[in-house]
Design a protein that fits this description.
This protein is of the alpha/beta class. It has ten helices and ten strands. The protein has helices spanning 46-52, 83-89, 105-110, 121-134, 138-141, 154-166, 184-197, 210-216, 234-239, 244-250, and strands spanning 6-17, 20-31, 35-39, 63-71, 74-75, 90-93, 172-176, 202-206, 219-224, 227-233. The strands form two sheets. It has a six-stranded mixed sheet with strand order 6-7-8-3-9-10, with helices on both faces. Strands 2-1-4-5 form a four-stranded antiparallel sheet, covered by helices on one side. The longest helix is centred in the middle third of the chain and has 14 residues, at 121-134. It starts with 5 loop residues before the first strand and ends in a 5-residue tail after the last helix.
């Protein structure tokens, strides 16, 4: 079996909040159609790193970036690269469901499509239905697409956010602890979707749940104190880590 193509890569990436380094000199490659887990204790830089991949980090006052993030060989921080258009190619789902409260279910999904004014209403409706189906939500909401998204359960809202993220057909989906606020049933559904969607997208997921990382990911990166300590196939990281710090975290000696 041939190796997956690498379309997303970081090179010597350092992210700063003011004068404090949150992530230091991280170089990683994320091959396509794989799930890549980022693990480590709270405050170790996982989410900061994740947000550098689609420039969400720039929304934090005082933040700065050095190094490169390459998507299809192009540095996403290069002059002339639009953050808005980048986020259509690198979608993101946050820890807590973030549906737009004053929009209907359908309009939530379609919100990222409005940039392309050439799309007809019928085409937008098709994309909305397809995205909701891919997020396993269509059958639950097809009769109330015009209703407020806030009327959905927490798990449904998170799947709605996932549908919104995939509607513009991104190359990469970033998931920042997407099941942290969900019950076990909602968590299981999201994990099933992650497994299904990797056939179409490259997925990078931050999780505090090591069992979840072991279940859903193909590769795992362990972060500690802003440093990427170890990266490798998930099976190897969890059964035969090369670094002492990784083993200590995996076995519960700290974290």
């Amino acid at each position: 079996m041939s190796e997956p193509v690498v379309r997303l890569r970081t090179e010597s990436l350092t992210a700063l909040y003011g004068s404090f380094a949150a992530v230091k000199e991280v170089s990683l490659a994320f091959p396509t159609n794989r799930v890549h887990a980022l693990i480590g204790p709270s405050g170790c830089g996982k989410s900061t790193f994740l947000r550098t991949l689609n420039r969400m980090h720039e929304t934090v006052p005082g933040a700065s970036i050095t190094g490169r993030v390459l998507l299809d060989g192009t540095d996403v921080y290069a002059p002339g690269v639009s953050p808005i258009r980048l986020r259509r190619r690198v979608g993101m789902v946050f820890q807590k469901p973030t549906p737009f409260p004053f929009m209907s279910i359908a309009d939530n999904v379609a919100s990222g499509l409005r940039i392309d004014r050439s799309l007809s209403k019928s085409r937008i409706a098709e994309v909305v239905e397809r995205s909701l189906r891919r997020a396993a939500l269509w059958d639950e909401v097809k009769d109330r697409l015009g209703a407020s998204a806030m009327g959905l359960s927490g798990g449904q809202q998170q799947r709605l956010c996932l549908a919104r993220s995939i509607a513009p057909e991104p190359e990469v989906i970033l998931l920042d602890e997407p099941t942290a606020s969900l019950d076990p049933q909602g968590t299981q559904r999201i994990e099933e979707l992650v497994f299904e969607l990797k056939g179409e997208f490259t997925i990078v997921i931050v999780t505090h749940n090591m069992q979840q990382a072991a279940r859903v990911s193909d590769t795992t990166s362990f972060f500690y104190l802003g440093t990427m300590v170890e990266h490798g196939p998930t099976r190897q990281i969890f059964t035969a880590p090369r670094q002492e710090q990784t083993e200590a975290y995996i076995t519960g000696r700290f974290g």
